[in-house]
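Researcher: Going back to the complex we discussed earlier. I've cleaned up the inputs and rechecked each line, so this should be the final set. Can you rerun the prediction on the complete assembly and write out the structure?
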Amino acid sequence: MKGFSRASNRHPSYWAFIVHRLSGILLTLFLPTHFWALALAIESEATLDEMLRWSDHPLVRASEFILVVLLAAHLTGGLRLLAVEFLPWNDRQKTILAAAGGIALGVGVLFLLNAA
Amino acid sequence: MWTAQRASAAVLAIAVTVHLATVIYAVRGDLTAAEIIARVQGNVAWLIFYVIFVLAAATHAPIGIRTILLESTPLAPRIADALSAAVLLIILILGLRTAFGLYALQT
Amino acid sequence: MSDASDTLIVSVWRGATEGQLVEYTVPRRDNQTVLDAVTYIQRHLDPTLSYRFACRVGMCGSCAMTVNGVPRWTCRTHVTKVAKAGRLKLEPLRNLRVIKDLAVDMSAFFDKLARARGSFQPPKSPRSDFAVVRPDSAERRNAEAAIECIGCGVCYSACDVVAWNREYLGPAALNRAWSLINDVRDAGNLGRLLAVAGDAGCHACHSHQSCRQWCPKHLNPTASIAGLKRAAAKSALKGTL
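Model: Rerun complete. Updated structure for the full complex:
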């Protein structure tokens, strides 16, 4: 593909970039689907109720879970980039942001699981 | 374009957090359709929020896609621009339709 | 451990853009550097091997090449640090045209340095007095952090965006531009900012930080480029760009 994962690339900032890029692509593909499904659902109250019950289906649950994870990953990666580009350089920013990212992701996942 | 990307990213960071929180709240509270509609229908604040959300997404995603197409595919710049514009329109149109659709919901 | 053996198997790229890896067996020595190994091959095994070096003490950057996939200075890389299971793979620097074997054409690298206006531009008329550059000023500290670059090309080779985008000026050129933008004596900064802002300039950087990871002088082009991004955005918003 892009010739990634060369030896010179195996360091954390590069993987962060890959996650950010992949999640961005997947989210772009998902968004229209999300709008379309919602548009169908709100045709009336009845269809919305139906949709809400449909959302209890495990497959839907699973894809929602993946989506929230993608979103959280892209968001935290993006925040890391904004920090690199706009805040004064801090050698520890990588560690700080990685930690923040992990926490955000974890919280998102936990909530989603709890929302069952 | 770079500035637009970062600005829309900042807007999305806030909008996404609010949206996720809302959805989680709704799901945990087992809100029914009727309750959701009651809160959203005719509510200008939610409308404005979602319109801003859609505009930010319609700015952010196409610029990202354009970069990826230019860097990782052999497509010509004009084609990359055209495809990104398509993404922009899709998100804009579908998103605004949904936002206004929610606003105009009838019980 | 693999170091018990007293020889090293070194695969070396022979040819130009087309070519192949050829294996040589090199005796191990104490404190051997990769440059020592390459020199041994050329002197005792195959005099037709082309490679570059000059100072051999880590000051000039001429010996830069790709060692086991990573761009390094061979004179400063000990074999024990990089040889995996007694093997080394030596290739020319990535992202540059190969002239022969391990020697690459650095002109594209230096052309981009010029395109980024990487040289000092004095004011049109001489100043009436010496310029005052306070050592503790933000600009001086910024320039200080970026100034030690010797143009070895390691960062340029490590950079993915350079590989993906032919026009991208690259970390070294942009880092140099940043050091000059922070030089309060320089009179060419509007033109310089124009030269480095845009799709081929600082905005193409995705902050992978491979440049920072491998720079033998421990410079941080990513931070310099971030500075350029901010300067360009500020100028654009002010309408001066």
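Model: Worth noting: Chain B has a mean pLDDT of 84.
Researcher: Good, that matches what I expected from the previous run.
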